[in-house]
Design a protein that fits this description.
Elements: E1 10-15, E2 20-23, E3 26-28, H1 35-46, E4 50-55, E5 66-70, H2 74-84, E6 89-92, E7 99-101, E8 121-123, H3 127-132, E9 141-148, H4 152-163, E10 167-172, E11 182-189, E12 192-200, H5 201-216
Parallel strand pairs: 1-4, 1-6, 4-5, 6-9, 9-10
Antiparallel strand pairs: 2-3, 7-8, 10-11, 11-12
Helix pairs in contact: 1-5
The structure holds cytidine-5'-monophosphate.
């Protein structure tokens, strides 16, 4: 769009889970629905930004005005994020698997003696940390999410430093936030912590996009 407070800006957003194949018919996944990331993409497009939404497998419709790139694995997500640069701001909302399995080429069979197969796991790249420390095309504003069930704010602050992000949006997932319409976020920055109180994911998205707009202007 050529109108709105984010006109002329490019926002890069990741959302949803990743699927990490074990063999041709099985995968490792997580409970991310993609709803928060999609809401942020929709809010950014409404504000006039050009929006690239790199999405893991979800069942949500593409928000109006958003360019969606579908991926399955963390490695595909990392490549799609790199391909979408440069961006003015990046919001990494995806629940990226920490590991992928060394996938078997054929379906793993149950052995006659009942021995369970062992999965060999390999670490995935940290897409957020990679962007925050990008040698040539670091977005001006790099934002991560931290979904935690325990020690929410301490973990979020640790993540801010460890990953080199500008902001971490801390997300208490001890209730039924995963897949639900409501959320309770804290915005964690070098300046401190803001409690945003429980609200609809759509309203949280609008609020975050307003903050991004402020920060980029
Ligand atoms: O360390 P943790 O997975 O809790 O960090 C969450 C944040 O890091 C989210 O913003 C998520 O999108 C991002 N992340 C990532 N690549 C990974 C793991 C997490 O971009 N491999």
């Amino acid at each position: 769009s050529t109108r709105g407070p984010l006109a002329g800006r490019h926002l890069l957003i990741t959302a949803g889970p990743t699927h990490e194949p074990i063999d041709p018919v099985r995968y490792i996944a997580n409970r991310s629905s993609g709803r928060q990331g999609y809401a942020i993409a929709a809010a950014a497009a409404r504000a006039g930004a050009r929006v690239t939404l790199v999405s893991g497998p979800v069942t949500l419709p593409t928000p109006p005005g958003v360019t969606r790139v579908d991926v399955e694995t963390a490695l595909e997500m990392a490549a799609a994020v790199e391909a979408a640069l440069p961006a003015d701001a990046a919001v990494m909302v995806a629940a990226v698997a920490d590991w992928h399995a060394e996938a078997a080429a054929a379906k793993i069979k149950k052995p006659a003696d009942g021995t369970p197969p062992a999965l060999s796991l390999v670490e995935n790249p940290d897409i957020l940390a990679g962007l925050a420390r990008h040698a040539t095309r670091r977005p001006r504003l790099v934002i991560g999410f931290a979904a935690e069930t325990d020690d929410l704010l301490a973990n979020a602050q640790a993540k801010l430093t460890r990953k080199g992000a500008d902001w971490i949006v801390a997300n208490d997932v001890s209730g039924d936030v995963m897949g639900g319409a409501d959320t309770h976020l804290h915005l964690v920055t070098a300046a401190g912590i803001e409690d945003w109180q429980p609200m609809r994911k759509d309203d949280a998205a609008t609020r975050l996009v307003a903050r991004i707009t402020e920060s980029l202007s």
